[in-house]
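To: structure desk
From: M.T.
Subject: fold request, one chain
Message: Could you run this one when you get a chance? Sequence is below, nothing fancy, just the single chain.
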Amino acid sequence: MSRNFGENHRVVVAMSGGVDSSAAAAVLKEQGYDPIGITLNLSCSARSADKGCCSASAAADARKVAHQLGFPHYTLNFKEKFKKLVIDNFVEEYQNGRTPNPCIRCNQFIKFDLLLKKARELGAEHVATGHYARIMTNVSRKAGSRIKDTNMESGQCPMSNEGKYKLLKGVDGRKDQSYVLYMLTQESLAHILFPLGGATKAEVRKIARNLKLPVAEKKESQEICFIEDDDYGRFLKETSLEAVKPGLILDRQGNKVGMHAGIAFYTIGQRKGIGAHGGKPKYVVEIFRDKNAIVIGDEKDLFRDELTAEEVSFVSGSRPTGPLEVTAKIRYNSPGAKAIIRWLGGLVVRVKFEKPQRAITPGQAVVFYAGEEVLGGGVIRG
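Reply: Done. Structure tokens follow.
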């Protein structure tokens, strides 16, 4: 069914108390939308309860912005579901020697699933966030409106395929967040707005300053919201003894060369905490959960030209029928590399890179692009 702006312009804005989500709400308000601000209470420990994007102080900042801009604000308690869907998976992945990205699961299961359902209960057809990404569609959603004193568009652009949606990188290459949104579906994209997709960070700051929003100069948080001071080790010690069980450090030939403090403290490509062996710096090149062992090697041993990805999805909803040339990113800040993907059956693909890539890490996402467009992605398993 067509989602026409004139039929329902109420939108739930996920507000973290930061400048991006606050500016996103301001943009939508100026475009004529009817925002409802929602801050999610996701904290599950006393240490993290007063920090990050879901803390009490964040909710207070979001509430101030909503009051100033003239729309309602609510805080929703998603603690239990966040723990089950995001934190428990985070711990399990580390127990299995993998390095997860909890922000991706939060987007998939919390912001663009549970929050979208809550939005509908509130009579809203859309959820908006401050992500730097764009959606292409020819469905009218107040597309193309401009904000005074900026060259920013609403993040919605026309395309030729009726009723289809495409996910694009954000215009600001340094802030692009499309990597953590690859799992979005046609159904979810039909109900999502990214007002900042066509803006740079500088333009977003300018909007907040011009409106004298209380968060205009607020610094960005670089930490995972549920881990205080980014101390993974402490968090995992408190939640999973299995993940921090000491074990063997092996060389590439299987010889014991030392002991590690727990596989959760290591990731592929890591040098810190390994030390030098044979007079040369060594790196983690493999992690074996079943043996509770890590394998170290030289830097050259980190390079591989293939990987297998599971839980693969494509934004279009259609799988490739044959080999597909893409640009593949194996980590958030990766520039991407040319590759060919082949469907292996189920939700599994094989990715063959044109050139070997350094430190392909199980648990991280591999995301497929065609130019600016996000095609899809999956979780690296080997």
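Reply (cont.): Confidence is low (pLDDT under 50) at residues 1-6, 142-163. Let me know if you need anything else for the meeting.
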